[in-house]
Design goal:
alpha/beta, Nucleotidyltransferase, domain 5
Length: 494
């Protein structure tokens, strides 16, 4: 038996699978995010531990006989978080999360130290990454900085708590700005930009390699019969890719979650830092991936539904009918989905969301459609940014909460003019992916293709040819709105 743990921003999700990758049981435990100031986003790592133990207990209760036969665990986690521990392994301060934007000044300083950051890391420096967060701590919390023994990513702190060992793996480490992406090792030069050394970093392994053994006290706590290994695992998006079997350069996926992601593997190291495309290692050896990221995706829909007092299900039903009316579509309002700034392609922490072309006839449904369309345009921005350096992807799969809406997938298929596919069990994406990595580590005689293969497609969605031209015309108008909105946002901050 194998367990996959997905440490997400809002919850811990966990699955128990057998040797045939059949999902035997699932569990979930919610987490909270704290925002002590505008632009701040933090989490108490002790919550990760409590939620993990709650999920393990739930799995044990659901499948007691199978659960105790577990031999390996894989862990996925939200990326970029700065979790600091002292020499005693104690957490120094709350973890600063991926969507925290406080370190924008430190980003400029990080890149102005005479090191070619972008060519080594494959990425432009953004507040979401780990490195500028550490530079902020050094500047504003010098006492906390002086206590640092190790800097750990969220899932790697969870691993440390469970095993007592400091490990990370290539896909998650790629999001720190301290990894030499091409060479797949810590860069002394990049670490020096944060006034750190390699001794402050965990040991690196590949996602399918063993990275610690579960402590005896936890083995006994949950009555595991076997020694339980914990593999390297993966950052959340690489884990989701492994869960769907997306490891080759002709594959890709779009994630419509809290953030919006377009992900595609590459056989070699590629980058497009000019458009703030992420260039990361994949969770399997000798594989890389490109990724566009928009900071606000389905949470924009949550927001507009809350202010219009409409359920998400009702909103999606209303906008589908609205979309079918060509005249309504042509004359619809526009929405820029930049509620928390933006990464790809703008790298702009100051930009903010806005509605445009509103009229006296504008109603809640019109606003809801504008939001869904604006998010979709943001996804297209990301796809176009990646197309500048890689156009090998053919298959595009859909994951994330937004992928449950057939209407939304149909809209995206028309906008991208590509077939989009939904997979069975895609909701377990990341947790299944790291369970597969655990299984791969335990089956050294098997190739990854026999374990991390494509899961079954449940439904395909083709473009609506009648809507393509209209959507693309609207997309061109929408793109021009960024410049004017950028000027407004800048003026508000001065």
């Amino acid at each position: 038996m194998f367990i996959g743990i997905d440490l997400g921003t809002s919850s811990v999700k966990m699955i128990l699978v057998d040797n045939n990758q059949k999902i035997l049981a699932t569990s979930n435990s919610n987490l909270t995010v704290n925002s002590p100031k505008d632009g701040y986003s933090e989490q108490d790592p002790s919550e990760w531990i409590d939620a993990t133990f709650e999920c393990l207990a739930c799995l044990k209760k659901k499948k007691p006989k199978e659960f105790v036969e577990t031999i390996s665990i894989g862990i996925s986690g939200h990326m970029h978080g700065a979790t600091l521990v002292d020499k005693d392994g104690e957490v120094i301060r709350p973890c600063i999360l991926w969507n925290d934007t406080r370190s924008h000044e430190e980003c400029i300083e990080f890149e102005n130290q005479g090191i070619d950051v972008r060519s080594i890391s494959g990425n432009i420096t953004m507040p979401g990454f780990t490195a500028p967060k550490i530079n902020w701590i050094k500047k504003h919390e010098s006492e906390n900085f002086s206590k640092i023994f190790k800097v750990l990513l969220p899932k790697d702190y969870l691993r440390f708590y469970l095993t007592g060992e400091y490990f990370s793996e290539m896909s998650d480490a790629s999001g720190t700005l301290w990894l030499d992406i091409k060479k797949r090792k810590w860069s002394e030069n990049l670490l020096s930009c944060s006034f750190l050394e390699e001794k402050h970093m965990p040991k690196l392994v590949e996602g399918n390699e063993e990275a610690g053994i579960l402590k005896n006290k936890f083995k006994e706590k949950f009555n595991f019969k076997n020694t339980v290994s914990i593999v390297g695992g993966a950052g959340d998006n690489a884990a989701a890719a492994a869960g769907m079997g997306i490891t080759e350069q002709n594959q890709s996926f779009i994630s419509l979650g809290t953030s919006g992601v377009f992900f595609t593997p590459t056989q070699n190291f590629l980058s497009n830092t000019g458009d703030a495309v992420h260039s990361f290692c994949h969770c399997l050896p000798n594989k890389w991936h490109l990724m566009s990221v928009m900071l606000s995706a389905s949470n924009c829909l949550d927001w507009v539904c809350s202010i219009t007092n409409t359920s998400i299900g009702e909103a999606l039903s209303n906008v589908e009918e609205y979309f079918s009316n060509t005249n309504d579509l042509i004359n619809s309002s526009f929405f820029l989905p930049y509620l928390s700034g933006e990464r790809t392609p703008h790298n702009d922490p100051y930009i903010r969301g806005s509605f445009h072309s509103m009229k006296t006839t504008t109603n809640a449904t019109n606003l809801q459609y504008a939001v869904i369309e604006g998010i979709s345009f943001g996804i297209l921005d990301g796809v176009n940014s990646i197309l500048k350096v890689n156009n090998n992807f053919e298959k595009i799969f859909m994951v994330g909460g937004g992928s449950k809406s057939k209407f939304w997938i149909k809209l995206l298929a028309s906008l991208l003019n590509r077939k989009l596919s939904v997979c069975d069990q895609s909701e377990f994406g990341a947790s299944l992916g790291v369970a597969r990595l655990a299984m791969y580590a335990d089956n050294n005689n098997n190739s990854s293709q026999n374990i991390i293969n494509e899961i079954k497609i449940s439904e395909n969605f083709n473009p609506n040819q009648d809507k393509i031209d209209i959507l693309l015309r609207r997309y061109k108008i929408w793109k021009d709105l960024y410049s004017s909105n950028k000027n407004i946002a800048s003026n508000l901050l001065t």
